[in-house]
Every structure is written in structure tokens, then in C-alpha cells.
Amino acid sequence: MTTVGEMGETALIEHITDRVRRASPLQTMGGRIITGIGDDAAVWRVGGVQAATTDTMVEGVHFRTSTVSWADVGWKAWASNVSDIAAMGGVPVAGLVTLGLPSSLDVSDIDALYDGFLEACSSYGTELMGGDIVGAPISFVTVAMTGVCSATPLTRGAARPGDVLAVSGPLGASRGGLILLEDGAPLDTPARQALALAHRRPTARTDASAVIRRLGVRCAMDLSDGLAADLPKLARASGVSLQVDTDQVPVADALRTEFRPEALRLALGGGEDYELLFAGPSDIVAAAVSEIPGSSVIGDVMEGNAGRVAYVAGRGERLSLNIEGWEHLR
Amino acid sequence: MTTVGEMGETALIEHITDRVRRASPLQTMGGRIITGIGDDAAVWRVGGVQAATTDTMVEGVHFRTSTVSWADVGWKAWASNVSDIAAMGGVPVAGLVTLGLPSSLDVSDIDALYDGFLEACSSYGTELMGGDIVGAPISFVTVAMTGVCSATPLTRGAARPGDVLAVSGPLGASRGGLILLEDGAPLDTPARQALALAHRRPTARTDASAVIRRLGVRCAMDLSDGLAADLPKLARASGVSLQVDTDQVPVADALRTEFRPEALRLALGGGEDYELLFAGPSDIVAAAVSEIPGSSVIGDVMEGNAGRVAYVAGRGERLSLNIEGWEHLR
User: Fold this and answer.
1) In chain B, whose CA is at the least distance from the CA of A222?
2) Which pTM does this prediction carry?
3) ipTM of the complex
4) Kind of pairing, strands B241-245 and B309-312?
5) In whole angstroms, what is the distance from residue B249 CA to residue B267 CA?
6) Where are the alpha helices (DSSP H) in chain A?
7) What is the distance between the terminal CA atoms of chain A, rounded to a whole angstrom?
8) Per residue in A59-82, pLDDT tens?
9) Which of A74, B186, B197, B234 satisfies CB 3.0 to 4.6 Å to A117 for a cystine?
10) Alpha carbon A48 to its chain's center
11) Rounded CA gap, B11 and B33, in Å?
12) Residue B232: closest C-alpha in chain A
């Protein structure tokens, strides 16, 4: 056992640099990286249009090592950035990692964290090209990622009245998994295992992003804070109101199995699903939904009342829902 | 007074987005930004070679609001990233800001922080193009920045035996300022004011970077952790040893005035100077030093003993120095 404090920053950075270089021996991104991890900044060759995003996880706020492993944290931090790039219609390329670390943390935990980063790097065809490590009283993990993008990215502000609204797959599994993990429930059924996995290893929908981009969708965002919290963001950015049919919101099967009466509420309110929410003309969205297994049309984009979201159940009665997604600062 | 927790994440992000858009009404970077702050990721148009870096400041570790203002924190977090891009020979373009915020923090403090970011944006011709805000038990500020760069960036690994070593300006003023501010010393002399300013508002040497790049220097890094801590990093990356003449190390005038007997030690050990350390053939470095006021040749690059740094005083006797720079995790 060696703590981060015992190893010291310089040795830890060298240790990590060696590992990352071994995992990606040429640091080339197909010849694109000129200077990778280990210098003041990463340098790479690009042409055209770039996307950049950043996302942070703080111990005790976004994760607890009692419920997720350090490798899970690395995977999630990387995948959530991939998801943001995909939500712009971009293809993720490379990221920087910033770590805030208490000096008492064991270096083996950092190794596990990088296992997660590097697994995700490999899964999404991306490269870890550098970062920063600082001492801190609590652990935090920030990834900043760049990708290539078209000059007409998928934005939150491109929904138009008359468009229909869709999600790329079932919701709520991550939240269900979090509840099970926090309760210390035995993961003794396939449904429970599926929920825990959805929480620990979410999938960024680069595949769905490619489909909707190809079909000409212009409006998308990823669902990181929960559908109920994210819908108003799209509505405000687009200057429209939204009507969502809760009967059409796809709920993860395992969530129905484990949390039957609560499943819809968890699907609407739960965060970290990283599915894509997108809107467009009904023919385009219908084509996308037919190509993306598990996706569904969930509602309509309407004129007026910018930012407002109304919920109806299938037969049309108006619902009053009191569901809040994830608000980071409350 | 409104705390961050009272305002909530969504409102705070909208508040910040409005401010940043007002400070940069077109979010265009000369037509390059396609989607700026407020979406899943920023999207901009580039061609050629990019540099990216990230740097973090943690409250209680890298700053205390008893000694620096929130505007100073914003300035420093931005300028330190500009400095990293300059140290690669790049020109900074745009950055993302990640904030970890306790819910008790006042929104006026966040406004002051963004004052600092936006002042630095303006000073360095850069744009704030997005970011992430999360709740955290302590405050931390991470900036990730990209810039354009040549295909032959200035790296730490390009020093060769026979090269000479130089710094772009006087060292130690930031450390001197930190000592005065932590002691609560009255800032009642020009020297003390200069030291405090150097600590609160360091300057990234984009000017010196442009000179050394134009003259053909290939090896550089910025001095963020202190000369004594940073020299071995350059020596290790280049596989060389270094010999530094402490009589030639430029010491900030105000530091000599205020800390006479300790001035050299503070100049060697103090961090956050953000001067450039560079190496190259003696004729090129001499030309650079003659163009950069305050810069000095400080030593030689030698073969063997990779990573070793020896200190001599002017007449040549070997010194045994016990000076440590900033190690973030100790």
C-alpha cells in the first residue's frame, strides 16, 4: 500500500504517464497526437469543426466508493463526456483528466480509476492525452473532452413547434441501480444486476447520435440530470413548450421488475441515463426511432409558454407531476 | 445575498450564461464559435494543430479567500492555462470552466470569479465557451483550455547537451506576495504592492512564447511549481542533466527589497511565477534573451545523469541546495 501523499505528485504523474503511454503506445490517434500526456499541454492535429465539453464527479456528491469502484468512477467520468460530445452530434477524440486527491488515497485506487478511464477510452475509440493532479481534501474527477463535429451540431435550441420529441432508449435503470447499491441490496437477480450495471457502467449513445445525425435531426441533448429536469432545459433553449405522454416514456424492464409502482417516477426523475433526448420533424424522428432499438417518441413540441413542460397520460388527461431531477447545488 | 444553494444549479448556470454572452455578445471568436456556452458541448471551427491543457485551484490548497479575491482566483485559473498553452508555443483560443461549489457560497462570489475569468479572457484574446458546475463540500476551479499551435510545439523533452538554459523573467515575486498576504502584512510600499500583485494577478508570458517560437527555440515549459521543482522535470523529459548558475537566476527586484537574505531561495523555490524556462543553442537563446526584457541565461544542458540538476554559484563552486518547489500531494 502506498498513499498518494507518500508517492508525491511528481512520482504519481510519472507513474500515470507510463501507464497511459503503455495503454496507447504511440499516442498517435491515427497520427493526430503530436505531444500526448506528460507536457504542459497536449497537442494534436485537427481540421474542421471541434466540440469540447467537461464533466465532474465529486466524492460524496456524485459517487461513493461504498457503491461504485474507482474503475467505475473512471468509466463514468469518461463516458459522461463522450455522451456530451455525442449529444452535439460529434465523434469524441481525446480527453484531459483532472484529479483532486486527498493525500491519504491509495495509489492502487488511482490505478483502478485509470483502468476505468482506459477501458472507456478503448470502448469509445478515444485517447487520454493529459491532465492535472492536485491535492484536495476530497476526491474529485474532472474530464474535459474534445471531438470532431459537423458545422451544424445537434443543439438544445433547435426544436421547433410541430416537431416530435423522442428518447434513444429506456430510462431510470441507473437510478434504480443507485437505490439498490445504496441500500446494500443483494444483487441476486438478473434485474438487480442489470440495474447496478446501468449505474456503474452507463453507455454513451454514440450509436444513436450517428443515426440521428445521418437522418438530419438538428435538436438533441443527453439525459444526465433526469428527463424531468432536462426537458425544461431543451424547452427554454428552443423557446418552445413540450407535451410529454408519460405512457410513451420507455421504462427500463429491470426497473419495472424491481420497482414496479415507482418505476415511471424513477424513469422520469432519475439521472445518469445518458440516453439522448431529441426532436425533429415527425418523419425524420420516426425513421430514427425505427433504427434505434428501444427508442420511443414521447411527445410533441408546441408553440408558446417557452420552457414549459406538460405531462399527459395516454388518454390525454393532464397530469400534475412533482418530479425533480438532479439539481447539483441544492 | 443569495447563496448558490438558494439559487440552484439551473438558475446559476443561466445567470452565468447570460453574463458570459453579454461579455462576448457574438460568441464568435472571429466567426469560429458555432455553439458557445449553454449546450452540452462547445463547438468551434479549427484547422491545423491544437493544444489543450487543464489546471485546477482548490480552496485551502491553492488559494484562500483571506489572501486573494474571487476575481483573483478567476484570473489566476485562466492565466495559468494560458501559460501552459504559451509554454507549448501555442496561442490560446478558448476555455471551459468547471466549478465545484459549496451550496453556502454567495452568488456574488461567483460573479466576482467570472469577473476574473472575463478580464483574463479579454487580456489574452480568449473566449470562455462553456463548462460544468457541481456541488462540492469545498470550492474548486478547473479551467481546460485549447489553443492553436505549430506542428513542432515547444516541449520539455527537446533540450540537448550543449544547449543553454534561460528563463523569461525574474522569479519569486509571487511567493513573496503570498508570504506577505498570509502574514497580513500592510501593503504599504511599492515593493510590497508589486509582490502582492504578482501573486494575485500573474502574467502568462504569451509575448515571450511568441519570441522564442519565432527564433526557433524547441524546448520550453512554464514555471508553475518553482524553478527548483520544475528543472528536474525538463531534465528528465529531455534525458539530460542541467547545471544552473544561481548568480544568474533573475530575482524579482521587489523580492530583494523585502526579503533580502531569503530572496534567492524564494526565487528558486517559489511557485506560480509563470515565467517560461527554455533551452536551445546558445546563439538562438542569446537572441531571445536580448529581445525579452528581464530574461536571463541561467545555465547549461549537459550529457548524462538524466534528470540531475546541479547548482553552482558564479565562481564555479558546487552548491548543495535543499530547496523544494511545490509538490501538490505532500
Assistant:
1) B40
2) 0.88
3) 0.85
4) parallel
5) 8
6) 4-7, 9-23, 70-87, 107-124, 173-183, 190-200, 206-215, 227-238, 253-259, 263-269, 282-291
7) 37
8) 999 999 999 999 999 999 999 999
9) A74
10) 25
11) 24
12) A10
